[in-house]
Specification:
Layout lengths: L2 E4 L2 E4 L10 H5 L2 E9 L2 E2 L2 H14 L6 H5 L2 H10 L5 E8 L17 E8 L5 H6 L1 E7 L14 H6 L7 E8 L2 E5 L3 E6 L2 E4 L10 H12 L4 E3 L4 H5 L3 E6 L3 E8 L2 E2 L7 H15 L7
Parallel strand pairs: 7-8, 7-14, 11-12
Antiparallel strand pairs: 1-2, 1-6, 3-4, 3-5, 5-6, 8-9, 10-11, 10-13, 13-14, 14-15
Bound molecules: N-(5'-phosphopyridoxyl)-D-alanine (PDD).
């Protein structure tokens, strides 16, 4: 039976109950993390932990850092219980249960902590070798995309249908690239990586940070700054990055080919190094 962690206990998923008066359920008042697991080990645990602590701080939810760090113990237990070695841990913390729906938030509250680990299938080889197709859209989300909020309605409305050939939506705000619905994007021009500045318009993706480090180790320049819609369409390459999809080359955007419409040379170089990095223990920090 599948197990989960809820408020201090590991228990079968079917026995995990959350009150409908939980502010996460009523208002989307909470934050989350998705942590990739390779060979039963959390990928860059401390980077994910630091982002979670930052998200909690930004929503004024005080949480002891030691207490957060101790969550690694139940996480390891959940990982051990699955037969698959490759997984993704989902960790959600909400502001907790209030006695009535519209009470002001009390100074102290008991957050709800929920964790589950799920098997993660490898990224489809075809997507890596032949690339993915994406669409573009204007951002309809809120102004604090740096917070990994569980309120994902805006992203859900921008997400391509499951049965479409479109993998992801590139989101633009006022004519500049921000990110994807659940991913980041990197634009390659003349051999250099161009990335949007990780400000409140996007989530500072862990994969995006690691891919940029791997690219630097390959001798590539990484340039941060605004990337216009025209720059995106004129890119030599576009890459998607995310914890669950790793790195993927975008070969078409709104049905227009990106450069030659095939995965680029820089992608192939950095992807090979990325695979080596995943297969090493260079990221193991717990
Ligand atoms: N999403 N931007 C958004 C809006 C995201 O939701 C995500 C991740 C990313 C990439 O971040 P990272 O590289 O740390 O995964 C960027 C996760 C995978 C999800 O919601 O399932």
């Amino acid at each position: 039976m599948k197990q989960c962690f809820l408020n201090g206990k590991i228990l079968p998923l079917e026995q995990a109950h959350i009150s409908p008066l939980d502010r996460g359920f009523l208002f989307g008042d909470g934050v989350y993390e998705v942590i990739p697991v390779y060979r039963r080990q959390c990928f860059y645990w401390h980077k994910h932990l630091a982002r979670l602590a930052a998200s909690l701080k930004k929503i004024h939810l005080s949480f002891d850092t030691n207490e957060l760090n101790e969550l690694i113990t139940p996480i390891k237990q959940l990982i051990a219980q699955l037969p698959q070695t490759e997984q993704a841990v989902y960790l959600q913390i909400t502001r907790g249960v209030m006695p009535q729906r519209l009470l002001p938030i009390p100074a102290t509250c008991t957050p709800t902590v929920f964790i589950i680990s799920q098997a993660q299938a490898p990224v489809e080889t075809l997507k890596i070798t032949q690339g993915i197709r994406c669409a573009s859209a204007e951002d309809i989300r809120w102004r604090r995309c740096d917070i990994k909020s569980i309120s994902l309605l805006g992203a859900a409305l921008l997400t391509p249908n499951a049965d479409s050939a479109i993998e992801e939506t590139l989101i633009f705000r006022n004519g500049f690239l921000s990110e994807g619905c659940r991913s980041n994007f990197i634009v390659v021009k003349e051999g250099a990586l161009h990335v949007p500045l990780a400000d409140s318009r996007m989530l500072n993706g862990i994969t995006y940070q690691v891919v940029c480090d791997v690219a630097r180790a390959c001798g590539r320049k990484v340039i941060e700054g605004d990337i216009s819609t025209a720059d995106v369409f004129a890119a030599d390459e576009i890459w998607l990055t995310s914890s669950t999809r790793e790195m993927l080359p975008v070969v078409a955007l709104d049905k227009q080919p990106i450069a030659d419409g095939v995965p680029g040379k820089v992608f192939q170089q950095v992807y090979a190094k990325w695979r080596q990095h995943i297969n090493s223990d260079g990221w193991l920090d717990v």
